[in-house]
Every structure is written in structure tokens, then in C-alpha cells.
Specification:
Layout lengths: L2 H13 L2 H8 L3 H15 L4 E4 L2 E4 L1 H21 L10 E7 L1 H6 L1 H11 L3 E7 L13 E4 L8 E16 H5 L15 E3 L23 E2 L3 H9 L4 E5 L9 E4 L6 E10 L6 H35 L2
Parallel strand pairs: 3-4, 3-5, 7-8, 7-9
Antiparallel strand pairs: 1-2, 5-11, 6-9, 6-10, 6-11
Length: 307
């Protein structure tokens, strides 16, 4: 088999589009299609389902994928045996929940790309889990650590969440000093049947009525809160982006969650992805710590001004 055809197969498996695969490979999309068809003819099996939505791997394609990925990892390791520290280049697709993608990753990825001008990073911000076996992304950030699949999971950092509301909302209501005081308030949160990770069901163990305004999007929830329409559970790291919101019940109610970096096991020997992962982890840890510290300092200042 021609390794170049395998390279084309791998690119198409990862992006599911002839046009995007052509951009990655710097190749005409029609040539990508012909090369894949040639490979299918050589193997005597269909590797992709074709549709208007794009190219999806067949069962035969899914069986072939890990072998091609392993071969690519070996070649990458052979090309950079000493991991010399040269600048990163090429395209990396990173999946992340939208809270992380909106309020943490832009700053972190901007710094990484500034250090590596030849690097192209795609941030896929979706409120769902990513399937790395189907190459929806090269790596993904998750809240819960996956328990199945040939995956490598590394904890990045803890982060914290508290109830928050707009100052205008809090000014119109009596002080909130305990959980019971939340009864009768308008709550904002996730759409219950669209919570894709149990760690995001923040209100599950509280004796409160269901949220009245809901969204599967963290930024939408944050913007609903900014309208002065109610209270909701908010990532501390998001609050510097919404300085009109105030934390409440800080001594009484606090949640701790963690971000994990999830990679396909076959990619661990890929020096380029490994170095990107290391920079990403360091950047996210620093960013969460910096933003949470800023929120705590703002609270201390507000408390000193309004004892």
C-alpha cells in the first residue's frame, strides 16, 4: 500500500470533508477523493460513507484507523527522536466544553500560537463529549474522566463554582445568607435533558425548584444572569468577564470540579501533540489560578467597602 494514500485516508477521517482534508494536505479536493477511492479499491472494502453531511468512517474504516494512526506516530517519533524543542507547526483540533472554550482557551491558545507562529489551532466549542476514536478532535478537555476506550486521561486542574447574580437583581431582593433563602428566587441553569455530564447537574442535590430559564450554553446562562433575571451557578473563572455579577453564599455553597485532558492512546508517542498538550496544561492551570484569584480579591475589596 502507498503510505501517501494512508496519509490522505487519515486526514479525511479526521475532518470528514474533502475540502477540509484538501486544505490540510494542500491538495485539490477531487484528488483527495480519487486517492481514497484508490485505497478502497486496493483494499477491496469501503472505508467511508458518503453523504451531503460529509465523509463518515465505515466499520472497516474504523478498524483501519488505529493502525494508520500508530504508523503515523512511529514515523513522527522517528523524524524527531530527540524532541529538539523546535517550534510547533501544523494543525491541531481541540475539543472543549463551551465554558472552558469561551473563558479560558482564547487567552491560553493565543499565547501558545504567539510562541509557535507556524501552529494552527482549531477550538471546537460544543457542550457535549467528543469521540476521539472517530477523530472529532486530536484531543479534548472534559469535566468527567472517561472510563472507556483507548484513551489517556490527565487531570489539568480543579476549578470552582458559586451562585451568582447581577448586582441589579441582588439590590431588589433581601440578602441571601443560606440555601433556603433561594426558594422563591428565579433560577437559571442547564436544560435538564441536555446535561451531557453528571458533573454539570449543579442543582441536583439542592431542595430547590427547577430552573425557570435554561440553556445548554454557559455563555447564554451568563448573559441571562447579566439581565438581572435571577441566580445561577457560575464558574469563578468566568466572572472577570462579567463584572456586573456578584457571588452569593460563598461561605455556604461552593462546588469543585476538574478539567481533564483526554488524548487517544496512540498519540502519546507523537512528539508534536505531546508538546502541545504540555503547553496547554500549564497555560490552563495558570489561567484558572489567575482568574479565580482576581475574583477572590474583588470579593475581599467589596466586603471591606460594605462591611
Amino acid at each position: 500500500m502507498d503510505w501517501d494514500d494512508m496519509r490522505v485516508f487519515l486526514a479525511l477521517a479526521r475532518v470528514a470533508s474533502l475540502g477540509r482534508a484538501g486544505q490540510v494536505l494542500k491538495m485539490d479536493p477531487a484528488t483527495v477523493g480519487r486517492r481514497v477511492s484508490r485505497l478502497e479499491g486496493h483494499l477491496g472494502r469501503r472505508l467511508f460513507h458518503r453523504s451531503h453531511q460529509g465523509y463518515a468512517l465505515t466499520e472497516d474504516g474504523l478498524r483501519l484507523l488505529p493502525h494508520v494512526e500508530a504508523a503515523q506516530a512511529h514515523l513522527s517519533a522517528a523524524e524527531t527522536p530527540n524532541d529538539t524543542g523546535a517550534g510547533l507547526s501544523g494543525q491541531i483540533r481541540l475539543g472543549a466544553p463551551d465554558g472552558c472554550a469561551n473563558y479560558l482557551l482564547p487567552q491560553v491558545i493565543a499565547r501558545i500560537c504567539a510562541d509557535h507562529p507556524a501552529l494552527e489551532v482549531q477550538i471546537v466549542a460544543l457542550p457535549r463529549l467528543f469521540n476521539l476514536s472517530r477523530r472529532e478532535a486530536d484531543m479534548a478537555i472534559s469535566v468527567s474522566a472517561p472510563q472507556a476506550g483507548r484513551l489517556h486521561v490527565q487531570k489539568i486542574t480543579d476549578y470552582h463554582l458559586h451562585f451568582a447574580a447581577a448586582a441589579s437583581y441582588l439590590d431588589r431582593h433581601p440578602p441571601i445568607r443560606q440555601i433556603a433563602d433561594l426558594r422563591g428566587h428565579s433560577l437559571i441553569g442547564y436544560i435538564p435533558d441536555m446535561i451531557f455530564d453528571k458533573e454539570l447537574d449543579y442543582l441536583a442535590n439542592l431542595d430547590l425548584h427547577a430552573a425557570r430559564m435554561t440553556s445548554n450554553s454557559v455563555p447564554v446562562q451568563l448573559n441571562l444572569l447579566r439581565q438581572g433575571t435571577g441566580l445561577g451557578v457560575v464558574h469563578d473563572f468566568a466572572l472577570p468577564h462579567a463584572q456586573d455579577l456578584r457571588r452569593v453564599l460563598v461561605p455556604v455553597f461552593s462546588l469543585t470540579r476538574a478539567f481533564h485532558l483526554v488524548r487517544h492512546a496512540d498519540d502519546l508517542r507523537n512528539a508534536r501533540l505531546r508538546r502541545f498538550a504540555e503547553a496547554l496544561i500549564v497555560g490552563l492551570r495558570d489561567q484558572v489560578a489567575r482568574l479565580e484569584q482576581a475574583v477572590a480579591q474583588a470579593d475581599d475589596q467589596a466586603n471591606s467597602e460594605n462591611p
